[in-house]
Each structure stands twice: as structure tokens, then as C-alpha cells.
């Protein structure tokens, strides 16, 4: 069967492409933009990606068009699909009908931590010999690919609450019918499609309704918003983390102490920094426990886990300065990422932020950004031309630590001028940020060369 995917370079749709290719289908796709790691993943798989949305991309007609939620009415390719009467479906629907039927689905939902938790859960099952399939919104370094069909009945999926497609406004995750479901946390996000937190809670309630009575809900016991979701109805086993009597962790020398249902399992060494990642690990542990993975195997698996690309990933170093890449694009995620980097070693943190997501560009979280950046030593913000708010004004309470730039050249120059030995430059965006990571490294190298040429600049 020939599938043509509209919006193929999105993290979810690129995963659909990888799974369909592995299942033996011919896969092509169209997208307006492409950047690593998904563009490189598709290239490595030999999947043809056509730039833009020309109707000619659909000639000859594929057997089915799989439509990403980035595609809207008015899109030339989509208008051709409708006019020509070509068969089409959404990515979540195609996955549900062609991959997830009859499998034990382990879904990871929540505002934050979905990608890391789902990657860790897939790795824990792999380490236990269960050979799961998975679809994750990033590239886990243990696997080197964001999605695979798998060789067992288990399938791990990052369960996003964003809408499915322009013709299906339900959240993606209602298609997945999980038997094991993690609810990591819940905050207001996606202001472009949800008017308030209550509307997101309603979608999470719909997800809870799809979990069978013999299934398991793994829930953050410290999250009051999730408690409201479960108060609206819960028909499955509820297992909590961050709650006495559930799965608990406390900081300890060399890691954290693991306690499960009141039983102490000793100190666990984790490669993941930050309290938020302890929560992610506890959630993944409790989910893997549901399919029979013993605690010692979980602990061994965690020690061997390599995180997802773009999660505090070191891009490179120059002039004694280390540049990190991170996907953080919500005030809470920004705050915990800065905190996690702070705990790793000494040295200033230069936070570099692109407010790129729809919610960020609308300004929904503008009032919380200054607080999320308070632990950074210097803050550099790219004021994109499509921002609907004044970044300098919204972040003014950061005082002299703040530097706002309307173009990337001046942003990079300012970072290179401010950086000094042992600094860590933390770049945060949910896009490619114009390749700013490499540009910063090149600017650092160039400034070092200039200092050698002219000692007065050293």
C-alpha cells in the first residue's frame, strides 16, 4: 500500500512514516519545513519528502493520504484530496486501526515529561526482553529512532492531548485505547485550541474513560488538577507516584531512595538530573511493573538509559563554554530544565529562549516566563517577528540579566560576547531556532581566534 503523509516532518507523523515503512508499505510525504532530528531520520529510512504542499505530489494518487494536524483547509494538497475524493485519514486513526489493534498499549500523557517518560518506559521493556513497539515525540538515544513496529504485543506511545486533525478535533490520545496509562501532570497549555484548563481536563477524562477495568492508571499523586480529572470518574486500578504508599523517591547520596508500597529498595543511581526526572522515572517504573518487569530489572534499566535527543543534549563546546539544546517551551519546563542543569556542576547558566510554540507566541505564558528564568545567570530572548506580546516588557523584572533581540545575528553576537570560561549556554526552543546552536559555537570559536590575533581582546 502507498501512504502519502501530509505534514510528514512533525515528530508524530515522522514516527507514523517509520512504522508504516517497517510494516512494508511504500511511504512518501510532503511538508513545508524540515529540520533534524526528524528530517535526518526520514532520509536515513529512504522516505521521500517533498517540499511544500503541491497537488502534483499526489499524482499518481496514493492508496491513502494520512493527514497531520498541521494541515488546514486551504492547504493546496488537502484541497486536491477533497476535490478528487481521495481516501484520507488522520495519523492517530491510521495507527489505531493498523498497529494498535490487539496490542497492550502503554500510553504516557501529561503536560510535561511525556517524551522522556515514554522513551524510558520503552527502554525498560526492551531491557527486560519484551521487545516493544513504540512511537515517541523525539529520538531516544538507546534506540536511535523515534518509532518502530516492535516484535511483541507491547506498544509504548507518547499520548498527546493536542487535536487529531482539522476534521477530528478530539485529542490524539483518545484513539489509542491504552491498557496502561501514565498521567504525569496537568497544566494549562495549547492556548490555540483550548480556551481554559477545564477543557483540557475534559479531554483527560475522556482518555481515562478508554482504559479498561483491568487496566492501570499511573497517576502523579501530588497533582491537584489530575485529582479533579479522576474525581470525574475512574474505572481502573489507580497506582500513584509521589504519594505515601505508592511509588516514592527521596534524594540520597549517589541518587535517590526508591520505596514501593512502603518497601525500601535502596538507593537508585539515575543518569537523569532533576526532581522532574525522578517523577518521570517513577511513572515509568510503575507502568513497567504493570506488565511484570521486576524492580531490580527496572533499576538496572534506568542506569543504562540514555535520554532523548534535545533533552539537555550537549551540542558542543568552544572556548571553555558548553552549549546545550533542550525542547523546553513552557514556563514549568523551562524552570525545571534550568534547575536540573544547575545541579549538575558549577558554572554560570546563560539561558537562550525562543518563544516559538503557538501558546508562547500568543503570550498566554508571558507573565510566568520571568519566574521560570529566575535561576539563570543571564537570559537571552529571541523576540520573533510573530510574537503577539512585548518580550522586553514582560521580562523586565529580570533586570540587567535580560537581553532581548529581534534578529538572530545580534542574539548570537551578544551571547558570544557575554560568555566566559566554564559557562553553560542552555538553548530552549521547540523548533530548530534557525540553527542558533551551531552559530553560537562558531561565534565562540571566531571570538577566540580574534583574541589570539589581538591580545588586547583577550
Q: Measure the end-to-end span.
A: 62 Å
Mean pLDDT: 91
Main sheet specs: 7 strands, mixed
What level of helicity do the residues show? Answer: 25-40%
Backbone structural class:
alpha/beta
Low-confidence stretches: none
Query: Outline, from the CA principal axes?
Result: globular
Search tags:
globular, 15 helices, 7-stranded mixed beta sheet, alpha/beta, 24% strand, UDP-N-acetylmuramoyl-L-alanine:D-glutamate ligase, Mur_ligase_C_dom_sf, 6-stranded mixed beta sheet, UDP-N-acetylmuramate--L-alanyl-gamma-D-glutamyl-meso-2,6-diaminoheptandioate ligase, Protein-Tyrosine Phosphatase, Chain A, single chain, 3 domains
Describe the overall structure:
- With about 450 residues, this protein is an alpha/beta fold.
- It folds into three domains: about 1-90, NAD(P)-binding Rossmann-like Domain (Rossmann fold, 3-Layer(aba) Sandwich), CATH 3.40.50; about 100-305, UDP-N-acetylmuramoyl-L-alanine:D-glutamate ligase; about 315-455, Mur ligase, C-terminal domain (Protein-Tyrosine Phosphatase, Chain A, Alpha-Beta Complex).
- It has 15 helices and 23 strands.
- Helix 1 packs parallel to helix 2.
- The longest helix is centred in the C-terminal third of the chain and has 18 residues, at about 435-455.
- The protein is globular, with a radius of gyration of 22 Å.
- It holds the Pfam family Mur_ligase_C.
Amino acid at each position: 500500500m502507498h501512504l502519502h503523509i501530509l505534514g510528514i516532518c512533525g515528530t508524530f507523523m515522522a514516527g507514523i512514516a517509520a512504522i508504516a515503512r517497517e510494516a512494508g508499505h511504500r511511504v512518501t510525504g510532503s511538508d513545508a519545513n524540515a529540520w533534524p532530528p526528524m528530517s535526518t531520520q526520514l532520509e536515513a529510512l529512504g522516505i521521500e519528502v517533498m517540499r511544500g504542499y503541491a497537488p502534483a505530489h499526489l499524482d499518481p494518487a496514493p492508496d491513502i493520504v494520512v493527514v497531520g494536524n498541521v494541515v488546514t483547509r486551504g492547504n493546496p494538497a488537502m484541497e486536491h484530496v477533497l476535490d478528487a475524493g481521495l481516501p484520507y485519514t488522520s495519523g492517530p486513526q491510521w495507527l489505531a486501526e493498523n498497529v494498535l489493534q490487539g496490542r497492550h498499549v502503554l500510553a504516557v500523557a501529561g503536560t510535561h515529561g511525556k517524551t522522556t517518560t515514554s522513551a524510558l518506559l520503552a527502554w525498560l521493556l526492551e531491557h527486560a526482553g519484551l521487545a516493544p513497539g513504540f512511537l515517541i515525540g523525539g529520538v531516544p538515544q538507546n534506540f536511535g529512532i523515534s518509532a518502530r513496529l516492535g516484535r511483541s504485543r507491547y506498544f509504548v506511545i507518547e499520548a498527546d492531548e493536542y487535536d487529531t486533525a482539522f476534521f477530528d478535533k478530539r485529542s490524539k490520545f483518545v484513539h489509542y485505547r491504552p491498557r496502561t496509562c501514565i498521567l504525569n501532570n496537568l497544566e494549562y497549555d495549547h492556548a490555540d485550541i483550548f480556551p481554559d484548563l477545564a477543557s483540557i481536563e475534559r479531554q483527560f477524562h475522556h482518555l481515562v474513560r478508554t482504559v479498561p477495568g483491568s487496566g492501570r492508571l499511573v497517576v502523579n499523586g501530588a497533582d491537584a488538577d489530575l485529582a479533579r480529572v479522576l474525581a470525574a470518574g475512574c474505572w481502573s486500578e489507580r497506582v500513584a507516584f509521589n504519594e505515601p504508599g505508592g511509588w516514592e523517591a527521596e534524594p540520597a547520596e549517589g541518587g535517590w531512595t526508591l520505596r514501593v508500597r512502603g518497601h525500601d529498595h535502596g538507593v537508585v543511581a539515575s543518569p537523569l538530573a532533576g526532581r522532574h526526572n525522578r517523577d518521570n522515572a517513577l511513572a515509568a517504573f510503575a507502568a513497567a511493573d504493570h506488565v511484570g518487569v521486576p524492580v531490580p530489572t527496572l533499576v538496572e534499566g534506568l542506569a543504562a538509559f540514555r535520554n532523548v535527543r534535545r533533552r539537555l543534549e550537549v551540542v558542543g563546546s568552544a572556548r571553555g563554554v558548553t552549549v546545550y539544546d533542550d525542547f523546553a517551551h513552557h514556563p514549568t519546563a523551562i524552570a525545571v530544565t534550568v534547575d536540573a542543569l544547575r545541579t549538575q556542576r558549577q558554572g554560570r547558566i546563560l539561558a537562550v529562549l525562543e518563544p516559538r510554540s503557538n501558546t508562547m507566541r500568543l503570550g498566554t505564558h508571558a507573565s510566568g516566563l520571568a519566574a521560570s528564568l529566575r535561576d539563570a545567570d543571564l537570559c537571552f530572548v529571541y523576540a520573533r517577528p510573530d510574537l503577539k506580546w512585548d518580550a522586553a516588557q514582560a521580562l523586565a523584572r529580570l533586570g540587567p540579566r535580560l537581553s532581548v533581540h529581534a534578529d538572530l545575528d545580534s542574539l548570537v553576537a551578544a551571547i558570544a560576547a557575554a560568555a566566559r570560561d566554564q559557562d553553560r549556554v542552555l538553548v530552549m526552543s521547540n523548533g530548530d531556532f534557525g540553527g542558533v546552536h551551531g552559530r553560537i559555537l562558531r561565534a565562540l570559536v571566531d571570538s577566540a581566534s580574534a583574541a589570539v590575533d589581538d591580545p588586547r581582546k583577550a
